[in-house]
Specification:
10 helices
Length: 295
Amino acid sequence: MANDAIPTYGGQAVIEGVMMRGAQAVAIAMRSPDDTIELHTEKLGRVYQSKAAKTPFLRGVVLLWDALVLGMRALTISANMQVDEDEELEGWGLYLTLAISLGIGVGLFFLIPATAGHFIGETLGIEAWAGNLIEGIIRLGILIGYIWGIGFMDDIQRVYGYHGAEHKTINAFEGGAELTPTEVGKYPLEHPRCGTAFLLTVVVFSIVFFTLLGPMALLPRLGVQLLLIPVLASFAYEFIRWTARHLDSPFVRWIIQPNLALQRLTTREPDEGMLEVAIAAFKEMKRMEELTETG
């Protein structure tokens, strides 16, 4: 696969399924209650071909927001397949769920650590930079603890299994292997462009950025941190993109080791059925890509 095409393919585990995104199209393969594989496909929005999507740092915010919406829609489509028709989530319910999820995420990973770090710093009477560093360590601990903790839930373990199947499928494709469960299963669970890697990168960048803020009152500090979240996301996106293009460098392979290590918490060895779903999603996405290019 050409090096400049490396950042093209991505995926996401959903409830009993996998979403695969290319440059032009997205496909979702889901295991239905009757054990068949159902497919849902659609073309990507124009934002992916816009100038904003090609502008460094700006593209991170634009594409990540669209990816959040796309991922939530994929989760909704997959979840709706598992429930009765009168329980389906759609329309404004989708966006309300996304807004609530974002609010919880911001509160858990930004506001709570910032508040804790501020009061610990005041209680111990330490320098502002040290309090900011404590805040970053708390944030990192919450992220790792959260990922580790929910991994004990049965449903999440299956999602992590599909996550592993998604990674193995993309790794197998990029390695030029035949996309069969037997061959795909031989490939690693970790992938350098995983969303888990992005989350860890955002947290690490936040430690650096917020430590440099210096002494601030709590409320202004919370406000500044909220405003800096898109900046952190942009830097993290560019970092992940850069490392994906330079994996032949020993230095790059070394600095991404923490990202790959964290993925061992968010992936599980998939069974054959999970691999079949991930492969079906990838093949359907590729088929849609080819139709879009020729049509």
